[in-house]
Amino acid sequence: MSATIEPDLQFSVLCDDVRIENNGKFILVGLFEAIRARTFPVQHPVLFVINRWCNGEGQFREKTRLVSAINEPVMEGPENTFLLKATTGVYTVVSRFTGIPFQHAGTYWVEVLLDDRLKQRYPLTLVKIEPKAKPSP
């Protein structure tokens, strides 16, 4: 089945955890846009990216990845294939990234691709925590 109407990315959210209630509702825990670390390189234990697609019709491939400021790949989620039977349907993708290696402080990017085309790109800032100055005697 070929795509007849390309979907919109309703939202893409970076967070610490995603939970799904028995009624199907998503609970997003710890939304953030920056990670702080005392030293670099650092390995961040886990983060989630949740993407919601809507207003489309057809079959599509979706992927989320993390890239450095100079567009070097840091980590890539799996490719997800999904079908929207009508424009009133939605499809939600939850990507879990574990053990993410960040080589230095600065701006990294969350990228969301649809059928290998970039649909959304937003910053994730890695901040070096400076040691607190000791008070003078």
What does this protein structure show overall?
With 137 residues, the chain is an all-beta fold. It has a single domain (8-128), classed as abc- transporter (atp binding component) like domain (Coagulation Factor XIII, Chain A, domain 1, Distorted Sandwich), CATH 2.70.50. 0% of the residues lie in helices and 65% in strands. The protein is built from no helices and ten strands. It has strands at residues 8-20, 26-31, 34-37, 42-54, 58-67, 73-76, 80-84, 90-102, 106-114, 117-128. The strands form two sheets. Strands 3, 5, 6, 7, 9 and 10 form a six-stranded mixed beta sheet that branches. Strand 5 and strand 6 (73-76) form a beta hairpin. It is elongated and about 70 Å long. 18% of the residues are buried. The model has no long low-confidence stretch (mean pLDDT 94).
Short description:
The protein is mainly β and 137 residues long. It is 0% helix and 65% strand. It is built from no helices and ten strands.
Structural class: mainly beta
As for the number of domains, it is: 1
Q: In the CATH scheme, what's the topology name?
A: Coagulation Factor XIII, Chain A, domain 1
Globally, the shape reads elongated
Helical stretch count? 0
| Quaternary state of the chains | single chain
Rg on CA atoms, Å: 18 Å
CATH superfamily: abc- transporter (atp binding component) like domain
Low-confidence stretches: none
Task: Record the SSE blueprint.
Layout lengths: L7 E13 L5 E6 L2 E4 L4 E13 L3 E10 L5 E4 L3 E5 L5 E13 L3 E9 L2 E12 L9
Parallel strand pairs: 3-10
Antiparallel strand pairs: 1-2, 1-4, 4-8, 5-6, 5-7, 5-9, 9-10
